[in-house]
Structures are given as structure tokens and as C-alpha cells.
Task: inverse folding
């Protein structure tokens, strides 16, 4: 007897739960997927702002797309940007990545990539010890 | 992009989990907010519990360094500890079923331990151990060396708790022909090729058998943080930190110098004989880095301090010397023309950094640099300019400098 009473009590609850779940799923497909579309627009993978490719931080110049396609699949663009090397060193680095890191053959793209890198991120002459730079001065209270 | 594919891939089961949050609180979600689990680029400071003043050098793989003034603690807390990863951090770490296998040509019989085996079978030891990335200071080399452009912050000295590798190797039994050990970890190669290891380095058997060489399970009294090798890490203090393998699951006792990933070529190797900057060096002329060189950091005050004329300035910092001890710490306020001795403490234990302090006086107003120069127990001092150039820019132990103005 007790059991029947309970099930009478719970039945509407179960129905409500099931219904809201179904409605929920439907709502998600109508509204949820729309939100997803908006997200896609917001993170436009090709967006350029102030001459910088927003997604990677690379300078917008000839060869950008080839560099993005070939040099950011395995590692971050940050690793590329912080390295400043000449043609010979970049070619050696590419050979090393092909030999040990699973980089594919680049064909004629190799020249496009290396030219982009040496033109936009040329090596800086630093000497044997550079002066201290970017000092943020502050008053030190004892 | 990522998000849509996540929803598509995860199917109905995943969808219903996402669903609750999306429907019920949808109106409250700020525009453009992406639930944490779905973020393409998660906040590394939150994810790894790092201070926001840490500097991210690379996010695939994660590489992050401290700044000198962040390293002022005597024992480095996690929030100021540099991260140097070669591959991707393993996903779904199952501590209960995690094992460490000891194998290789030079074990009498290979053996596998669970973490609770290790903890219950062997005596626990705590050592404060200096771990410095071999490439710390790389950014200063000229011509530039490729790799993460570390400045000075890829060094730490935390407390590590674990069992001695020596005790484990004794129980397993190693043959007389053992010359090296090589570690293997659970991290994933950047190409996601399961047949490739991102890194598998090691140390000679003599270093492996040192009392301070640990299979650690705790850092600063807590389980090792994820980015630093949870749940097990080989810790070999005083050597390039890459010798201290993270997410450790196997140690091979080798009858030859370990030939794992990043043991050869220009990785963690320098020319056996010094070369002119920029010279090409043949592979067989390169030697593996062992002990790190003598070095020091002024961790207080932060560079850029301005003080009033007549005021004194307290300075302090740390000095370390790989396998050796630091015997002396000098500082100069006149670009190396004259040097004064600082107070230097003994290390807490072998391979821990040593603290120094002093009170500096300045003769008159002006721009000053304080330079710190440590001397190791063999009498070798830090150079004031860059040490020997090498293809990958390792071992830059040029003296640390901070800028001061007396006004």
C-alpha cells in the first residue's frame, strides 16, 4: 500500500523531469548551437589587428598563412617569435625538426617560411653583455 | 571552432552534462564566456597555481619562468617555480595504478613497484635540491641560440620528499657493467605520435647512486604539482633540471650512456672544447652537460630600486654551484672594479642553494649596478660577461646585475 502511494506521488515528478530533459535538449539545439556559431565568429582564426595576426601573434606579412599552417601545428607560435635566427640557422632548425620531431617535407614553402622569419624577426646584435634595459624605477622605502 | 567540435564529438552523454549549465544559467553567462572545461587556452596561472608575475615563454609545450625578485624565498614555493616541459602533460593520471618499473640491460631482473610499494618499502628522505634548466640565461647568447629564450628565472630550490633511487636499485640488483640510468615518463610527444618520447634523459650510475638522488612523490610537503611531474619524479639536484624526469614510470639501468630522446645532438650538450661564437660543431665534438656551473641571483631588492642619498641598502639572494658548494659571494657596485664580500650561509644539505646578504653603502648620488659573483669550492668564479658560446645556449652563468639609483 505504502509503495503505491509513493509511486503516485513520484509519477508526476518523473514525468516533469523527463519532459524538462527533452525540452532542455530541444532548447539546446535551438539556442545552444546558435551560441556556438557566435563563438566561431568571435574567434575568427584569420583576424588581423594592427598588423598582428591575433590568434598567433605573428606579424602580418608575406608568407604569414604558410607559417601559421606549417609552424603552429605541433608547437606554439610563441616558440617561433622568441627565436631570432638567420637563413642558415632556420634551415638547420627545419632539418632538425624533420629528422627528429616529425615535421613534414615543406617543398617550396620552406623558402617562403624562412624568408618570412628572417625578414620579420631578424637577429639582434647583443654583444658579449647587453646593458640593462626595461628598468622599472620605483622608490624603495626602508 | 574547437567548441563546436567538442560538442559534436562528445555525443549525447557529454551533451547532457553540458546541457544543465547551458540551459539553466544561460541568461547569466557573460557574452563570450566559455565554460572552463571548454576553453582553448586555459589560464596557465590558475591551472598551475602560479603567481601572475611569472613569465610564459611557451604554451605548447608549457614553459614559464620566474623573475629574480620572485625567487626571494629560501625554499621556492610552487607559485614561483619555473616550468620547463618538452612534451604535453599526461592526461588522466591514475595514481592508484601508477607504477615504476626498473629495467634495462644492467638489472639482474626487472621489477615493478606501485607508489604505495615505494612508500612502504623504502625509507623516506627530504632534501632541498637546486634544479636549474640547462638553458637558463639562453636569451643573452650572441649569435642567438634556438629554443626557449630563458632570462634568469629557470631555477628553483624546493624541498623534495621521496625514496633514494640507490635503495631501490640495491633491492632490484644491478650488474657490474651498469654505467648510466635513463628515465621514461608519461608525457606525450608534441606530434602526439605514441611511438615518440618527448624526452628521456638520465645520469651516470655514480650520480644515480648519490644519497640525494630521489624518486620523489612530494614537493614542499605536498603531492608534486601536475606541471612538475605528479605523481613521481626523479630528482637529481645540481644537474640540468632535464635530468630530473617528470611523470616518471620507468628507469632503465643501461650498460652504455643512455641514448634516449635529447641525450644526443646539440640537446643538453656543449662543445667538448670551447669554440668561437657561431661556429659549427660536429656531433662527435659535443659533450653531455653534467654538474651545473657556479651561479647566483640577487633576489632583493627588485631591480630598479631608488633610494635617498645616505641611505643603506640591504641586499640578499642565493648562490649555488651544481655538485659543488659555494665558498664565497662577492658583490660590486662599480661595474666590477672592486668587490666586497657578502655574508654567505652554509647549504641546508648538499646540492641546496646558499643564501647571502649584505648591507650596501653608496658614495654619492647616481646610477649604480649591483653585480653578484659567486666562487665555488674549486675556486672557479662566475664570469662578468657571457661564458663560452655553444650552439644551444646552455650554461650562461654570467653574474647577475640589478640597477639602483641613489637620488
Result:
Amino acid at each position: 500500500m505504502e509503495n503505491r502511494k509513493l509511486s503516485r506521488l513520484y509519477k508526476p515528478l518523473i514525468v516533469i523531469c523527463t519532459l524538462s530533459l527533452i525540452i532542455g535538449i530541444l532548447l539546446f539545439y535551438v539556442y545552444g548551437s546558435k551560441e556556438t556559431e557566435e563563438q566561431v565568429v568571435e574567434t575568427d582564426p584569420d583576424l588581423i589587428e594592427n598588423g598582428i595576426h591575433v590568434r598567433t601573434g605573428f606579424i602580418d606579412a608575406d608568407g604569414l598563412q604558410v607559417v601559421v599552417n606549417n609552424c603552429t601545428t605541433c608547437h606554439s607560435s610563441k616558440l617561433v617569435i622568441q627565436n631570432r635566427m638567420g637563413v642558415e640557422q632556420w634551415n638547420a632548425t627545419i632539418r632538425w625538426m624533420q629528422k627528429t620531431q616529425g615535421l613534414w617535407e615543406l617543398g617550396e614553402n620552406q623558402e617562403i617560411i624562412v624568408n618570412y622569419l628572417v625578414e620579420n624577426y631578424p637577429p639582434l646584435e647583443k654583444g658579449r653583455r647587453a646593458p640593462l634595459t626595461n628598468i622599472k624605477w620605483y622608490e624603495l622605502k626602508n | 571552432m574547437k567548441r563546436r567540435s567538442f560538442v559534436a564529438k562528445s555525443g549525447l552523454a557529454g551533451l547532457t552534462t553540458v546541457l544543465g549549465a547551458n540551459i539553466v544559467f544561460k541568461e547569466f553567462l557573460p557574452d563570450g564566456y566559455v565554460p572552463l572545461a571548454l576553453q582553448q587556452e586555459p589560464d596557465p596561472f590558475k591551472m598551475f597555481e602560479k603567481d601572475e608575475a611569472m613569465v610564459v615563454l611557451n604554451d605548447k609545450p608549457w614553459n614559464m619562468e620566474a623573475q629574480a625578485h620572485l625567487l626571494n624565498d629560501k625554499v621556492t614555493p610552487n607559485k614561483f617555480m619555473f616550468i620547463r616541459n618538452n612534451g604535453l602533460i599526461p592526461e588522466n593520471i591514475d595514481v592508484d595504478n601508477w607504477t615504476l618499473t626498473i629495467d634495462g640491460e644492467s638489472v639482474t631482473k626487472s621489477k615493478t613497484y606501485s607508489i604505495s610499494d615505494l612508500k612502504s618499502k623504502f625509507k623516506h628522505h627530504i632534501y632541498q635540491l637546486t634544479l636549474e634548466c640547462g638553458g637558463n640565461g639562453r636569451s643573452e647568447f650572441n649569435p642567438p641560440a634556438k629554443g626557449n629564450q630563458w632570462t634568469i628565472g629557470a631555477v628553483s630550490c624546493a624541498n623534495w620528499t621521496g625514496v633514494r633511487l640507490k635503495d631501490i636499485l640495491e633491492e632490484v640488483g644491478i650488474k657490474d657493467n651498469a654505467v648510466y640510468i635513463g628515465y621514461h615518463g608519461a608525457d606525450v610527444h608534441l606530434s602526439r605520435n605514441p611511438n615518440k618520447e618527448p624526452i628521456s634523459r638520465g645520469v651516470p650510475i655514480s650520480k644515480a647512486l648519490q644519497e640525494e638522488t630521489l624518486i620523489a612523490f612530494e614537493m614542499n610537503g605536498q603531492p608534486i604539482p601536475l606541471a612538475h611531474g605528479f605523481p613521481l619524479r626523479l630528482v637529481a639536484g645540481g644537474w640540468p633540471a632535464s635530468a630530473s624526469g617528470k611523470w616518471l614510470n620507468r628507469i632503465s639501468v643501461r650498460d652504455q650512456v643512455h641514448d634516449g630522446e635529447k641525450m644526443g645532438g646539440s640537446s643538453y650538450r656543449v662543445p667538448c672544447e670551447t669554440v668561437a661564437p657561431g661556429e659549427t660543431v660536429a656531433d662527435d665534438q659535443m659533450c653531455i652537460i653534467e654538474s651545473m656551473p657556479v651561479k647566483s641571483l640577487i633576489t632583493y631588492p627588485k631591480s630598479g630600486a631608488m633610494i635617498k642619498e645616505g641611505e643603506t641598502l640591504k641586499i640578499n639572494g642565493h648562490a649555488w654551484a651544481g655538485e659543488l658548494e659555494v665558498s664565497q659571494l662577492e658583490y660590486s657596485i662599480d661595474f666590477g672594479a672592486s668587490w666586497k664580500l657578502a655574508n654567505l650561509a652554509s647549504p641546508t644539505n648538499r646540492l641546496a642553494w646558499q643564501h647571502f646578504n649584505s648591507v650596501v653603502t653608496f658614495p654619492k648620488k647616481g646610477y649604480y649596478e649591483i653585480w653578484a659573483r659567486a666562487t665555488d669550492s674549486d675556486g672557479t668564479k662566475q664570469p662578468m660577461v657571457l661564458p663560452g658560446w655553444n650552439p644551444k645556449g646552455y650554461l650562461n652563468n654570467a653574474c647577475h646585475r640589478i640597477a639602483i639609483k641613489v637620488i
Remarks:
- Confidence is low (pLDDT under 50) at residues 32-41 of chain A.
- Chain A touches chain B through 47 residues (CB under 8 Å).
- Chain A has five helices and three strands.
- The beta strands of chain A are 48-49, 52-53, 138-139.
